[in-house]
Amino acid sequence: METVVVAMSGGVDSSVAAALLVEQGYNVIGMMMRLWSEESVNGYGGHNRCCTPDQMADARRIANKIGIPFYVIDTREFFYKTIVEFFIDQHDAGLTPNPCLQCNRHIRFEWLLNHALSMEADYLATGHYARVTTAEDGKKQLRKAYTLEKDQSYVLSVLTQEKLQKAMFPIGEYTKPEVRELAQKFGLPVASKGDSQDLCFLGDGDYRRFLMQHRPEMFETGPITLSDGTEVGEHNGLPNYTIGQRKGLGISYHEPLYVLKMDVPNNILIVGTRDELGTDSLTARNFNWIAGEPPSAEFEAEIKIRYKAKPALAIVTVLDDGRVRARFDEPLRDITPGQGAVIYQDDLCLGSGLIERREFIREPA
Questions:
Q1: Catalytic, out of 50, 51, 103, 349
Q2: Out of 50, 51, 100, 200, which one is annotated catalytic?
Q3: Which residues partner with 33 through β-bridges?
Q4: Which of 26, 230, 259, 288 has a CA that sits 20 to 30 A from residue 2's CA?
Q5: Are 356 and 284 in contact, with CB atoms under 8 Å apart?
Q6: Active-site residue 349, yes or no?
Q7: Mean per-residue pLDDT for 88-111?
Q8: Active site includes 103?
Q9: How many other C-beta atoms lie within 10 A of the C-beta of residue 141?
């Protein structure tokens, strides 16, 4: 009998994933990670929102209900060094990180997977909405969930072939309403619980306040300039701004201005018109090809530049040093350095890298 460790959160998705695996005859072990969180802020916080005492109690109750052992492992120190420090450092570099990509790469499918394998488990399962299939050559493939509005392949695009071989996503073929129905069928007391939230380690959800407390030197004021260097105002710290932002710039100008770029070495916020905001190309670094290699040196694919972004058609060129360039059919407004660029062909996820640069290859009209 094969053994599967299930990453349990006390929520409906991971609970149903565990129950389905028990029903399918696996030897199932429930495991929950205790993650780092800042102390209580303004009456909020003190516990990571992915593993509050109530969620731990719910997960333990679910494990008892379906008859599996349940363990909590202390992951706070590793989480802080791997996720929280990464989050702070990326903002310090003028980037806009997605901590969920980093968390799935290092926390779930490194730290937790290693714990599962040390217990002689064969697989690690999570409650993500995604699917794993097998290619003709035996390699594992990551595919979108059947329910595209809940698809989470974007945050799983960091998985290597080795890790995907050990991954299971039992609810990837179900819709959210079907998962809730399964929870009711199994008699699980979490059928109506809401979904988890990003930035789980913040006490009050205010990341700017958090950055100010942990690295106040990032918030040095500096000039706001147009692309040609004309100074039009003063910013109150680069972390207070994001690419594409229009409101809150404090600039009086004859047409709306948007954030185009952060010049971190010179502490300059660069703004421009709506026409200047769109770019038709990006480069991404540290690219992870799930199959172990790209399909070819140049190919057509769809790319998501944010978790909730609509996929955009592009020509992908594989560069040196683990980098890729994507040239889009149409300019995109929201290409943001630090976010993940995830490549798809139909429902197959090929992999992802971190956006390092946005640019125009064709001259804007």
A1: 103
A2: 200
A3: 73
A4: 288
A5: yes
A6: no
A7: 94
A8: yes
A9: 17
